[in-house]
């Protein structure tokens, strides 16, 4: 009896194991040799999602090997094939899968960000930061295509291509000379440390400079050297920090980049769809199918059902075409405590972005340690040379309304300063497009500020930050007031006296002709 119970137990266990294995799908993937991190993430996602993983590795642009890989996976009965969007054989494998009725996962379940969505986000960011003009640093022409909507929306925009050998110093120094302070940085994540380091050496990582970094892997970069510089560095983050699977994934990888996170979510969502459909995939020969049964069935299910779940890249919702909808992104800002979330952006509520400025404590904390170089110009009664029998040095050489006011400000805020005398206010040279005088010194960061009776014109206001006017200098807008014309405007060509002499001469000539007749 006892032996009979054990036999029944093993029979039931075998049946349950068969049922479980029959519902376990195989998902294939084709990676290039450089995609090791994505490949490991794909395997991890398969383990967590309870699916079998089949992977093949091919060389870049090796279309023949890619075709063989697809055929091999079809013979193994895979439920779908995944290829990263950056793969050189991606389009080729998609065509092969369509012909062989093997689901190409990204054409069915696309959790990646759409380029037009990112373009709208960048436009919202620039508008929120109130940039009047900015410089776009890009790596290649594909970057210009990705940011085409941004370039069409704003003008003027300065375009600068990054050096392939990563020697950016000459370009960065020129940017400092021209006073370019608002920068959109589009490059691969690996180039960010070099660019930011050289920008700091060139004096472009200061409280006067703002950056929008398009890479969503800013959290993987060591930003420790730039945390206390005061520059406004803004980035994007697609990874949900409170996701339950993130901790498990982070145990396998020290830093999860966004491309790996999208790989993980693709496997999770697709396996979820397969579980709901309960399809059965059998091994088939590598032959072209006249009717794509599997692909049509999955497309129909996605079209007729609502697909939503939580992934590493926040909440995932698919539209009727299988593309991601209502994508939520976090906007992060580099502060003293690291990257801090300062706003969110949603593809359906695009204008809900709220950026927070740098905290005021940053300014008040740093001012007692600051020493400012202050440009000024002799202009009574604001700044004048002090007459004295003694030999005066430094700030003691000057007196005047602005000198006294700035001295009082330094006592209140606790900073130190030195006046640097200049002899020209400065204007924009239309030929070189560069500023002259004090404005040139300020633009090239040879001084921190100008304290002078400098008139705020629209041209200067577009390039420099002014304090609000606190005194009226008496200069007003002058315009020509036209004199009302007489009824017969043709008479205005000559003066009244000339018309009088002309009339008298005509009368005199008439009388002379009458007398002579």
UniProtKB/TrEMBL annotation:
Stretches that traverse the bilayer: 498-516
Family membership noted in the UniProt record: Belongs to the glutamate-gated ion channel (TC 1.A.10.1) family.
Start and end residues of each Ionotropic glutamate receptor C-terminal domain: 371-517
UniProt lineage: Eukaryota, Metazoa, Ecdysozoa, Arthropoda, Hexapoda
Superkingdom of this protein's organism: Eukaryota
First-listed, main subcellular location of the protein, grouped into a coarse class: membrane
Membrane topology: Multi-pass membrane protein
Subcellular location: Membrane; Postsynaptic cell membrane
Name this protein carries in UniProt: Uncharacterized protein
GO cellular component, one term: postsynaptic membrane
UniProt KW keywords: Glycoprotein, Ion channel, Ion transport, Ligand-gated ion channel, Membrane, Postsynaptic cell membrane, Receptor, Signal, Synapse, Transmembrane, Transmembrane helix, Transport
Position of the signal peptide: 1-22
A GO term, aspect molecular function: ligand-gated monoatomic ion channel activity
Species this protein is from: Diploptera punctata
Segments forming domain Ionotropic glutamate receptor L-glutamate and glycine-binding: 381-444
Xref: PANTHER family: IONOTROPIC GLUTAMATE RECEPTOR
Pfam family, any one: Lig_chan-Glu_bd
